[in-house]
Amino acid sequence: MRSMTLLTLGSIGLIAVSGSTNAVAGDVRSPQVAGVATVQNDAPTFYGDVVAILQESCQVCHQPERPNLGGVIAPMSLVTYEETRRWASSIAEKVEARLMPPWHASREFRGRFVNERYLEDHEIETLVAWAESGALAGNPADAPPPLALNEAGSSDSWTIGEPDLVIPIPSYMVSNELTDDYIYQRVTISADMLPEDRWIKAVEFRAGGSYVHHIVGGVLGGTAPGYGPFYYPNNVSRTLRTGSTIRFEVHYHKEPGPGTAVLDQSFAAIQFYQPGEVVKNVMRTTSLGMMDFEIPPGDPNYTDSSEFLFEEDSYIHFMNPHMHLRGKSARYVLTYPDGRQEPLLYVPQYDFGWQHNYYLNEPLFVPAGTKVTLTLWWDNSADNPTNPDPTATVTYGAPTTDEMGFGWLHWTEAEARNIVVGESLR
C-alpha cells in the first residue's frame, strides 16, 4: 500500500461519449425483407421507435461529422434510415451485449455520474426487435425533430463549440519502423496567442489518428483512446498563463511495416471562462499511481493498490483509472475518519480502447482525514484477447505493451475562493 502525494499538473482526462469502432456491417435479421421496409403489424419502426433512441444515446458520435475521441472515430453515421438500416444486426448485437453505448462503471453506480450512458431494457428490446422484424422504416412524420449536429464536411467543428484558442502541436513523422515511442513537443504561449492569463473552462484534444496512444499537455490535461472533451465542472478551473511553455508528451504506438508511415498533426482547443464569471476554486489532481508491481506470466487476476489521504476538507469532482492492454478492473473506495466506508467507483471490465472520465453529478464532500483507496486488477493470461504476451513478466513501463497503473482523482479544497474572472491572477 502506498501513500500518494498531490500532483499539480493536469492528468489524462477528458469526458467520454458513446461511439463504436468495432461494429461490422451486416444485413437486417429478417432476410425476407428487401429495400425500404414498410410497417407490418406492431413491429417497431425506425421513425416511430428507433431514431429517438439513437438521438439520445448514439448520434453524439454516430453522425456525419463524427468527433475524434482520443483517436477513436465512429465508423458510421446513424442519423438517417438509409444509413442505419444496413447496420441493424450489428446494432442489435452490440446493445444486447451491452457493448454500446460504451460505459464501464458498474450498474450499481447508475445515477451517480453526469456523463453516464445506459440503454434501458425496453430500449434494447426495441432495437433488437427492429432488427429481427426487418428494420422497418415506418412513417417519417412519426420521427422527433432532428438533432442539431455538426455539419458534414466541417473539419473545423469542435465538440466544445467555438474555441477561444487552438494550439497546433508540432507535427511529427511517424516512421514505417516505429512501434512505440514518446515524443516531447514544446509550445510557448506567446502574447499573440494569449494576451493575458486566462481561466480554462474546457479543453478538446484532436489526436491525428489511432496511432496516438495518448497526449498529455500539463495544465491542459490530455487525451487517450475513447476520451472526449475535458470540461472543468462546477465552476472550478486552472489557469493558462501567457508566456508559459506547455510540454506535450505524445505517445505513439502502431504496427510497423512498409506503408505505415504517417505525418501526425494533433491539436488542442481551449475555451476560457469569460470576464465576470466566477471560478469557485482551483482544481487539484492526484494520481494514486503504482509503479513497482510485477505481474507474473499467465496471472489472470493480479492486483495492487494505493491510497491518498485528504489533509483538509475537500470536494471530489471526478476520477479516471488508466491501465494498458492487460487492465482488467478498477475500484475506488472512501474510508471516512469515523471508519465508515463508501464505494466511489467500480469498473468491472476496464477497456483500454474506451477510457472515461467519471464526472460526479454533484461534488462529493470529504472531511479532512478521509482516505481514498484505489485497487487495480490486471489479466496477464492467454484468455485476455488484448494481451500482447501472456508469457512475459510485466512491470511498469511507458510502452503500450508494458503496463501502467493510475487512478487519477480530481478535487478541490472545500473552502471556496470565488475568483472573479478578469481580475488579476498575479
Topology record:
Blueprint: E1 6-7, H1 46-57, H2 81-85, H3 88-96, H4 121-132, E2 165-168, E3 172-174, E4 180-188, E5 198-206, E6 212-216, E7 222-223, E8 230-231, E9 236-237, E10 239-240, E11 245-253, E12 262-264, E13 267-272, E14 278-279, E15 281-282, E16 284-286, E17 294-295, E18 302-309, E19 314-322, E20 327-335, E21 341-347, E22 358-366, E23 371-378, E24 394-395, E25 406-413, E26 419-420
Helix pairs in contact: 1-4, 3-4
Characterization of the model:
- The protein is mostly beta strands.
- The chain folds into 3 domains: 16-155, no CATH class; 165-273; 283-413, Jelly Rolls (Sandwich).
- It contains 4 helices and 26 strands.
- It has a 5-stranded antiparallel sheet with strand order 1-16-25-19-22, with no helix packed on it. Strands 2, 5, 8, 10 and 13 form a 5-stranded antiparallel sheet that branches. It has a 4-stranded antiparallel sheet with strand order 4-11-6-7, with no helix packed on it.
- Helix 1 packs across helix 4 and helix 3 (88-96) runs antiparallel to helix 4.
- It is globular and about 65 Å long.
- The model is unreliable at 1-39 and 151-155 (pLDDT under 50).
